[in-house]
Write a structure and sequence with these properties.
A hairpin with a 2-residue loop joins strand 3 and strand 4. The protein folds into two domains: 12-65, Arc Repressor Mutant, subunit A (Orthogonal Bundle); 76-242, Gcn5-related N-acetyltransferase (GNAT) (Aminopeptidase), CATH 3.40.630. It is of the alpha+beta class and 243 residues long. The protein contains seven helices and eleven strands. Strands 3, 4, 5, 6, 7, 8, 9, 10 and 11 form a nine-stranded mixed β-sheet that branches. A two-stranded antiparallel ribbon has the order 1-2.
């Protein structure tokens, strides 16, 4: 199933099962069945149909949304092989840690918010009537060193837009990893009908703004004194690019 595919169910119980799995990311079938108060035979029947239709899949004994996986890519940078792939639910804890470590100076508020939301929900990938959220990660020797996140708004008036955040651990910067992640995120957005991507940064985040400007992003607006960082009021710089 494509992450932005329109959701349609011909039975309320199948929608309930999907919604429960989507909210939890990965869940044991019996736990979902008991939570939804369904008889085992009926639950198994509905799950079988959802699996047949490519909506759910079972992996490692747990139900997950059957998102269509994107191809993994690799490139060499200063003698290091970097691989970029779609994030998986099992990446959650490590990815949240990477985001928080990457923004240790506190000047990337949107990324900090994304980390907080994902950590609270305990779900990486989302696809419902309100949003579609996807992450791609850069890995070195199997360890996550960077990310790009796209949060697409599914409401009719905003479904052509998406928020993007991107970052790389300090020790891996200067190797084009951020550029590759940004390109992967924009490519995904273009493939899924997104026309405009936006991100906001505190005016003190010179490095982040310069990075986006170098890749063709423009400042659309500035909101004065929008953030309060370490007791000081800081402007918000609202940046965007067309896809």
């Amino acid at each position: 199933m494509q992450l932005t595919e329109t959701l349609a169910f011909d039975h309320d119980d199948r929608r309930d099962i999907y919604d429960y799995v989507e909210r939890h990311g990965s869940v044991e079938p019996d736990r979902a069945r008991r939570a939804l108060d369904m008889e085992p035979r009926a639950f198994g029947h509905h799950v079988a149909i959802l699996e047949r239709d490519g909506v759910l899949k079972e992996a490692d004994g747990e139900l997950r949304i059957a998102y269509e996986d994107d191809a993994e890519t690799a490139f060499q940078s200063e003698g290091v092989e970097v691989r970029i792939r779609r994030a998986r639910e099992e990446d959650l804890t490590g990815l949240v840690g990477v985001i928080r470590e990457s923004i240790g100076d506190g000047t990337y508020v949107d990324a900090e918010t994304v980390a907080d939301v994902v950590d609270h929900e305990e779900v990486l990938l989302r696809h419902n009537e309100l949003e579609s959220r996807v992450f791609f990660v850069a890995t070195v020797d199997g360890e996550v060193v960077g990310w790009v996140h796209i949060d697409a708004n599914e409401t009719e008036k905003l479904d052509h837009t998406a928020e993007l955040t991107v970052g790389v651990l300090a020790e891996y910067r200067g190797r084009s990893i951020g550029s590759e992640l940004l390109a992967r995120g924009i490519e995904w957005a273009a493939d899924h009908g997104i026309e405009k991507i936006y991100n906001s940064l505190p005016a003190t985040n010179d490095r982040g703004m310069e990075f986006l400007e170098d890749h063709g992003w423009e400042t659309e607006a500035v909101r004065a004194d929008h953030y309060r960082l370490d007791g000081d009021y800081v402007d918000e710089v609202m940046m965007a690019t067309t896809v």
